[in-house]
Amino acid sequence: MSNNSFVVSSEWLFQHLDDPEVVIVDCRFSLADAQLGKHVYKTSHIPGATHLDLNQDLSGPVGKHGGRHPLPNPDELATKLSAIGVNSQKTLVVAYDNSRLAFASRLWWLLRYFGHEQVAVLEGGFNGWQKAKYPITDIVPEPRMATFIPTLQPQMLVDREVVKNRKDLSEVVLIDSREGDRYRGDREPIDKIAGHIPGAVNYPWLEVTDIKGYLLEQPQQHKRWESIKTAEEILVYCGSGVTACVNLLALELVGVHTAKLYAGSWSDWISY
């Protein structure tokens, strides 16, 4: 499915490694070990890639409310994006991970929320890149100064009040992106309370890709969303606003351009 403007293949990226208008971002991370992403990046990464960390770069400080991964301060992330060579509305950012797009999609969504549409995820992630025997390195690239100015798109986002007031309306679909057993409340490995927001339907984020991290083909994606893609409003959440972005990417790929993220997600919902 690499023929979409929001998805690139390893072959395409290899051919554009030296393109000054392409910035590669390694988003590898582990919820079980917060240091793992930085460690594996230092060991080996795609040449020219810089690392952005889910906790330190792609999220803000955790408070009483707002969930486990609040959205980052726009100016702080903009400064970091400028320092790695991202010019607003110009530079193509290619994000990758090795977690079936979980963390790469977070950066994909954030950049678009910041008004920057020039962003794509790497099909198959770092594992696919390695399997294709493309080069890897441990060299950290020099800073590339650019100017990134965020232009926030508030229509892409909803908070708890909006979800509470709109979730039961007939024209609104509320999507829980977590695995089925967490949605049902059979298992809850992270948050203090198990279950889901009343009225939510379950579309697990892992169903967007195959086990190797490649997006399912377009007909399968369309079939998956068939029953809800004509809804007037689609609100998407997960545990903390990260893996929901994989579903938001999938919806974008089937032509649904107005789905919104409940960024605080379940971890914010249960904090009240």
From TrEMBL:
Rhodanese domain ranges (all copies): 18-138, 168-271
Taxon lineage: Bacteria, Bacillati, Cyanobacteriota, Cyanophyceae, Nostocales
SMART domains the UniProt entry points to: RHOD (SM00450)
InterPro entries registered for this protein in UniProt: Rhodanese-like_dom, Rhodanese-like_dom_sf, Thiosulphate_STrfase_CS, TST/MPST-like
CDD domains, per the entry: TST_Repeat_1, TST_Repeat_2
Superkingdom, taxonomy of origin: Bacteria
Protein's recorded name: Sulfurtransferase
Gene3D superfamilies, alphabetized: Rhodanese-like domain (3.40.250.10)
UniProt cross-references to PROSITE patterns, sorted A to Z: RHODANESE_1, RHODANESE_3
Keyword vocabulary terms for this entry: Repeat, Transferase
Entry's Gene Ontology molecular function annotations: thiosulfate-cyanide sulfurtransferase activity
